[in-house]
Amino acid sequence: MADSDDTDIQYLGLLVPALTAFIPGLMIHSFIIGVNATDWWKGRSVTAVDHIVTSLGISRMCAQSTKTIQLVVIRLFLSRYNVYEQNMFNFGLGIVYIFIGYVNFWLTSLLSIVLCLKISNFHSRLFLYLRGVIAHRTVYFIVAGVILSAFNVVIPLLVALSDMHRDGIYNAIMPNLSMHCVSSYYIYTYTVGASIPLLFCCISSVVLFTSLYHHTTKMKMSRNLSINLEAYYSLMRFIFLTFMYKTIYFIGHFLCICYYYFSCVYLEWLRIVMEFLPVLHSSYLIYRTAKLRSQMSKVLQYLSDFVFQRKDTETRETIEVVTL
């Protein structure tokens, strides 16, 4: 009985923060997708950054939904099934979650690259060529990122299926304390597959940050008081925070994999905490993007007017009742 109570407390301790990240994340990501999809539907101009941000919103919403389903469904609906069936379902959702994680890595790196090519003031032939190619083929690069993510998932999946066929499905899915729970090949695959987009993000962030730093330095030396440098500083903060988000996200998932490799224990709490990072980054994207910020202001203004109007109506009705 005590063990059951402890298990329920641990489950609630995971479910509450998961829902805390999922509900705001669902609203924020849906807002980003809705604004850009509405502009596309009405024939308005949709930039390369809009395509990437919309794809990021979709992938992040899918990642949070997968993690929440993994917690809720297994506990509430799969408890009547045996351990093998539960682990098969968990294994399938885990593959989907890993795939979406790779997509997030590539899309975030693509966003950094596009911003670097769009804002940096370099004029070399290679730089101008890359700016023209990527700016007009952003959708193709998004699709390429999805394909690469699928390729990174297929390889460890085939290894896992091979292990299941060799050792038996039960021993492949259930932790065996006499051996490592996952193949070291999966650690290598994750390290390589996630490090490449992280490297691209690092290079583009450093290039853009350096370009903005030199530009602001020259503007300071010109002593032109009419120039407002706050926009440049704000963009530099955005670049730094995006790179830090990407790095922390990479390290957090790498620690989860290594910990499970050595101890056969999932760090579910760390994975759930990591899901707060995309929500915070998407919120900052809304704040930094003029179009999204304007639409969010309209939504908040509408909600504020609706609440106060309803409150005034209820107050008026109360006064009329008292008068009667």
From TrEMBL:
It is a multi-pass membrane protein. GO terms for cellular component: membrane. Keywords: G-protein coupled receptor, Membrane, Receptor, Sensory transduction, Taste, Transducer, Transmembrane, Transmembrane helix. One of its GO terms (molecular function) is bitter taste receptor activity. The chain crosses the membrane at residues 12-35, 95-117, 138-161, 185-214, 235-262. InterPro entries: TAS2R. The keyword Transmembrane applies. It is found in: Membrane. The keyword Ion transport does not apply. Belongs to the G-protein coupled receptor T2R family. This is Taste receptor type 2. It comes from Eleutherodactylus coqui.
